[in-house]
Amino acid sequence: METAKGKRTKKTLLYAVLGFWAVVNIFPIYWMITFSLKSNAEIFGENIIGLPKEWIWSNYSAALTTGNMGLYFFNSFIVTGTTIALTSIVSLMATYALTRLVWKGSKMVNNMFMLGLTVPIHAAILPVFILLRNLKMTNSYQALIIPYTAFALAMAIMICGSFIENIPRELEEAACIDGASVYGIFFRIILPLMKPALATIAIFTFLQAWNELMFAVIFISDSKFRTLTVGIQTLSGSYTTEWGPIGAALVIATLPTLVLYAVMSGKIQKSLMAGAVKG
Amino acid sequence: MDKVRKNKTAIILFMLPAVVLFAGIIIVPIFMSGYFSLFKWDGMTEGAFIGLGNYVELFTSKTSGFPKTVQNALLLAVLSVFVQLPISLGLALLLAKGVKGEKFFMAVFFVPVLISTVVIGQLWMKIYNPQYGIINTALHAMGLGAYARTWLGEQETALFAVFVPILWQYVGYHMLLLYAGIKAIPTELKEAARIDGATEGQISRFVLIPMLKPVIRICVIFAVTGSLKAFDLIYVLTGGGPAHASEVPSTLMVSMIFGRNRYGFGSSIAMFIIFLCFFFAISIKKMFKTEVE
Amino acid sequence: MKRKLIGMALALVLAMGTLAGCGSKTETAEGNAGTAKGDTALTLWSIATESDSFNRAYTQAIADFEAANPGVKVVHETFENESYKTKIKSAVAANELPDLFYTWGGGFSKAFVESGKVLAIDGYFTDEYKAELPQAALSYATYDGKLYGSTYTTPVSALFYNRKMFEENGIPVPTTWDEWMAANRAFLDKGITPIGVSVKDTWVLAMTHDALTLKSAGPEKVAAALTEGSQSYDDPDFLASAGKIKELVDMGAFISGATGLSNDEASALFYNGTVPMYLSGSWMGGSIVTDAPNPEDFDVIPVPVLSGNAQSTDFMGGAVDTLMVAAGTKNPDLAGKAVFELTRGISKYAYLDGAGIAAWEKNYDESGINPITKKLADYAAEATSFTMWFDTLMDADDAGEYLALLQGLYVGNISPEEFVKAMAAQLDK
Fold first, then answer.
1. B21 vs C18: CB contact, 8 Å cut-off?
2. Residue C103 carries which DSSP code?
């Protein structure tokens, strides 16, 4: 009796903590949506957290008709999608070579990749810009895809590395005895087992690429290739800014992120279960 | 198998794309920054070679206040490792244990990471606003009006006021990594421990956490390097002010390179950030290695 | 073996994929995509985003220019103010400037000109243009005696106030420093904080300090100290204005928490009637109309004079918004013409929109303009001198130090004496 009661209070406490943290974390969404429907006067002082007194739906039409948000959305989608695909494949290939293949210097090269975590983005702007110009690649999708992929690689290789440790080497050896080549092992043994890692990498790469601003401002001048973050930024004027339409644009930009994450996190869990059973 | 693992062509093919990308976009800028850091240069006109002059100024100039910014960044790194990560780990363990609504909580706890920094910045400006901010309004309502402050605008509070949102925002980031790590641990291990009579706490302490080491190591490295490079939210919330109180190396670097046209000096800050991050990343990796072996 | 080959091929394709970027799509590198064959395209970068009050003026001026020059197309790309500063500097460094670009005159663009990436346009400044654009307006686009840009607006800073709040509290609108201080005290007695300011966006505080300095030291002395180096900043007149800032801070005249407020947040408190005064640039005239619930309550006066060195007709401000031509443009003659045609057009349309004070002669009907903007335009027309805002006038490094020192002065880290000494040391470097 005593312990059952103890268990119950413990459980209530647990859910109270989780519930509180959930509220704290879901608040930004509520706030973003309400702020997208307000005027500057409400946002700055009159009514900062309540529901809008006057629901200004025109903020959404302002956000959508200003500039070319549809195109920017498409550009962001192309850039981010390609970046995720490239990062996943390139990092997985490199991780396999670094951790499972045997060659001199693999340890050192593995450490070198950590340099990717160290470079502050602003210090890289000018060197990368000059490099892209020399390759005649400014104002194109690859002007963003290539730097984004390079900057995501360090993180992706580390995540891959920690997941690959859980894949028993015996699996590879068995396949080898069955006559599989190194490529066969990679594509048919390693790749399928690394799905959870890939889902994790996809989410983190997505976050980086989808929200990146400075590279996107500097490397892209032609608005045909402009991405969403830059597009949203241009909703502000130089001396005064209507924040409502910016809020609306941010809601529009964030929704796919939320949806994608909901889908992906389900995938992660599913593939994790699958992995656990096989492992 | 040995022959397969030593297949030279395969090694080159697998490494080539990563190496090319990495060399072009990461290594070249590091070398260029190193080169620029030896010049008094505005980024546009002819520069003058001054050797290590910029580095000397970094550590001796009082007005630029660089040592203070490093101190601030290290403080953030410490808070990140000893406050943010334990919270993330706790949440990940709780959720992975299988509470009701696991999926819902997983999704919700990750929300701050998904929301654009612009929104997070604006939100916290509303929370901290001295006139009508949520904190001050609450303090006044509770009769604690004497404690109301200009959180982002006073030198004593600005630093912690910008750290809180940074730490909060990335709890979910580490939680997701750790959660995936826990889920990847074979359930048989937990079952075996449970059959041996271990309590939930003991399972976490003696089975899960040791198994999680590779993931925890990554989290620590991300947390430390991320802290040393922290920029976005600080720039939005205080811009490093007031009077440099919340300045970190990145904000100082950006204001030097792009605000004050001191590209050479800014590059020397960049080199120092790169050095610090790399030093800590390698040290953390080593530290975890020796403990495992 | 076959399997091995397929694997290799796959890996190779992946490797190529990452490199493929090098070859494709380069033809779109220049901004002239989307124009018909035979057209000449000029690319123009500016910060007149679609949400900016100057956007309509730019669009109309471009349309006029295109209509007058068949076969010419102006591709207008707009960027957000803050990140544009980084963008334009990177573009100069990497030699990626467009034909025409917006920039800030004075110290900001000095390095651009020195780097040789900007075209001198004296040759295109014909008598027709000279008759309509006063030479004085081009002083911040002139470097070493050569003209490098043209302008369209001459903003000035002035003291904006809420007339209704003054009337309701029976406080007279100040014309001298003493009256201003009296008004501040009177408001404080009624429990109203008199002046709105942002210290976080330090340029707002700088505008107040700049104006007080001008009204204390006078335009000649300011220019001598900040640009010519023939006058030390460590001088009683400069000390006086720094002291006035401290006096205002100490008496609580500035809105509390200004160190944590952005300009957006602080000016919102002025528009909604929380504070009665805000010192800002003439663009605030346009913002009052769009952002304040009762625009008719607001009015503007020149900043009061502090000493005999200055007159009420000396103004902070001047033509800083500049269009320049890149030295690397393929069509220098066309771009040289466009820079004057466009600035003339923008000057007119922006003034008619109430977005800014026209820099070019106003040979059109101006009756429909909002009264505050009109009043500011009259101030500008009658001004005896213009002094550029210090953070634009000085070169980038000095400007950065100036703003940092001002924050220090405001929060009390340094005294007015230390402030002028530190400024003198920075300017001597």
1. yes
2. E
Give domain status of residue A198, yes or no: yes
In this complex, is the C-beta atom of A203 within 8 Å of any C-beta atom belonging to chain B?
Answer: yes
Residues of A in Cβ contact (< 8 Å) with C291? 40-41, 240
Q: Do B29 and A127 touch (CB under 8 A)?
A: yes
Residue C15 has pLDDT above 70, yes or no: no
Q: Concatenated DSSP letters for C46-102?
A: ES--TTSTTHHHHHHHHHHHHHHSTTEEEEEEE--HHHHHHHHHHHHHTT---SEEE
From C225, C44, C223, select the one nearest C139 (Cα to Cα): C223
CA C9 to mean position of chain CA atoms: 57
What average pLDDT does range B99-122 have in this prediction?
A: 85
CATH number of the domain that A107 lies in?
Answer: 1.10.3720.10
Q: Check B25 against A161: CB less than 8 A apart.
A: no
Nearest to A234 among C80, C271, C281 (CB): C80
Question: Could you tell me the domains of chain C?
Answer: 37-154+318-363 (3.40.190.10), 157-316+389-428 (3.40.190.10)
Which residues are C161's β-sheet partners?
C277, C299
Asked if this assembly's ipTM is beyond 0.85, the reply is: yes
The tally of domains found in chain A comes to: 1
pLDDT in tens, B210-239: 888 888 998 999 999 999 999 989 998 998
Residues in contact with A241: Cβ distance below 8 Å, sequence separation at least 6, in sequence order: A40, A235, C51, C264
Q: Taking 60 as the threshold, does the pLDDT of residue A277 lie above it?
A: no
| Cβ-defined contact of A90 to C14 (cutoff 8 Å) | yes
pLDDT for A39-54, tens place per residue?
888 887 777 778 888 8
A188-192, C44-48, C129-133, C191-195: lowest mean pLDDT where? A188-192
Cβ atoms C71, C39 nearer than 8 A = yes
Burial B25-37 (b: 16+ CB within 10 A, else e): bbbbbbebbeebb
Q: How confident is residue C212, by pLDDT bands cut at 50, 70 and 90?
A: very high
Contact at CB, B94 and A18, closer than 8 angstroms: yes
Q: How many CB atoms are located within 10 Å of the residue C251 CB?
A: 13
Comparing CB atoms, the residue among B14, B25, B229 nearest residue A94 is B14
Q: Is residue A3 part of a domain?
A: no
Contacts of B16 in chain C (CB under 8 A): 15
Confirm whether B58 is domain-assigned.
no
Mutant choice from A145, A188, A222 vs C, greatest count of C C-beta within 10 A:
A222
Q: Let me know if residue A35 belongs to a domain.
A: no
Q: What type of residue is A66?
A: T
The model's pLDDT over B170-224, given as tens digits with 9 standing for 90+, comes to 999 999 889 888 887 777 888 888 888 888 788 888 888 888 888 899 899 999 9
- B281 lies in a domain? yes
pLDDT at A272: 57
Q: What is the pLDDT of residue C37?
A: 54
For residue C102, pLDDT over 90 is answered with yes
| Contact call for B116 and A48, based on CB within 8 A | no
Contact C17, A192 (CB under 8 A): no
The range of the structural domain enclosing residue B262 comes to: 65-292
Per-position DSSP letters for C142-180, written without gaps between them:
EETTEE-EEE-B--BEEEEEEHHHHHHTT-PPP-BHHHH
Residues of chain A contacting residue B263, judged by C-beta atoms under 8 Å apart: 126
In chain C, what's the furthest Cα-to-Cα distance?
97
> A227 — phi, psi (to 5°)?
-100, 170
Q: Is C191 left (phi over 0), alpha (psi -120 to 50) or beta?
A: left
Q: Is residue B278 part of a domain?
A: yes
- CATH number for the domain spanning B138: value is 1.10.3720.10
| pLDDT digit string, tens, across residues C227-285 | 888 899 999 999 999 999 999 999 999 998 899 888 988 998 999 999 999 999 998 98
Residue A160 forms part of a structural domain = yes
**B211 lies in a domain?**
yes
Domain count, chain B: 1
